[in-house]
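tool_call predict_complex ligand=4'-deoxy-4'-aminopyridoxal-5'-phosphate
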Amino acid sequence: MWYNEGMDDDLASKWENSYSDDARVLTRSEIRTLFAVVAEHPEVVSLAGGMPSLDQMPFAEISKVLADVVAKRGAELWQYGTAQGDERLRELVLDICKLEGVQANKDNVVLTSGSQQALDYITRLFINPDDVVLCEEPIYVGAKGIFASYRADIISIKMDGGGLIPELLEKTIIEQEKQNKKIKFLYTVPNFHNPASVTLLVERRPKVLEICKKHGILIIEDNPYGLLSFEGELYPSIYSFDYSEDSEFSNAAENVIYLGSFSKIIAPGFRVGYAIAPSAICEKLVLCAEAATLCSSTNSQMTLVAYLENFDWMKRINLFRKSYKERSYAMITALEKYLPECTFEVPHGGFYIWLKLPEGVRSDKLLPYAFDAGVVYVPGTGFYADNRGAEYIRISFCYPNSEEITAGIKHLKSAIDNYKKQEALK
Ligand code: PMP
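tool_result ok
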């Protein structure tokens, strides 16, 4: 059992006094709890998870290359690899990132077990307790968990439909500086944000970079959804505005660490993500990887190399895009039909809708009504560092099919109606 519910009190508290200070802040994620509940109730439509659609995963191609790679490279496949990761895969990563203007040398790439691990390493490298991490409001729940586990002071900055607002970013920085706070980095998800779904306007990107450069703040650009725009458009990364051929260290950008992942464009089960970082930081990341895992899965990395070299991965990404576009359309249509009093930014890519509930409805209190009506979502409070956000929910269209999505939104309407009736009785 991974969480306390139902656990004997004595058992739960047995090691309480032995935990480190960092471990004390580790708490159960609402999303994981929901997964556990939904797994036992398959009749409930889950709009909670962020799992990619199974329909478009390239299972046939993967099994083909897997057989081939075992036959040809078996000895290496099952052996330890380097902490930095397979050299050929690092080159292929750069081919993918070039689409968004990322230029670097393969020596600037570190492969990790998902980009989640890269974020953990970066936080370990930079954060002492109470150091400030700037981030967007709302914040990706997995990043919040990491920053909290290193006891960072998470300072969030409101967004509008065009993502981070540069003027507000600078105002926040100045306020923190006045309090003598140490701001270590800005964490941003510029494309198809999780959970807010917004994309940082292209004209704001160089401004965000300039502000951070001026104040000596590193940018962590987390971009797992950038290739999943519904219409196929690509946005230049923040990283691309920082790269200069004539820079003193021309191998990579100097003020941005770019994070990417194969989770959403091929399959998360590979657990392969990557960080592209300035050389000195890259060296430190490799040391972190050595200390944490010796190396991440050679098996996954080599299978990915074979897949990327032998199949048209862009065609596969286009299938994902098409499928997510259809599903998002089903969700938007159902929301307009059944829940016109709820508001949201229309997504142009990615996995999520960040839904503002009708006046007076609290997402945490609504959840039991939703479960009874046959649907679950993630309450907005999960995406705030200080438990605000109860007026929002995150609903995802990535995993359920269009019919399930429509049914889920209908159930959500019944839940809201029941909630309002019950609350009126109180
Ligand atoms: N960043 C964001 C914004 C995400 O949504 C996710 C996954 N949900 C990750 C990072 C981590 O992805 P992975 O570790 O699978 O690469």
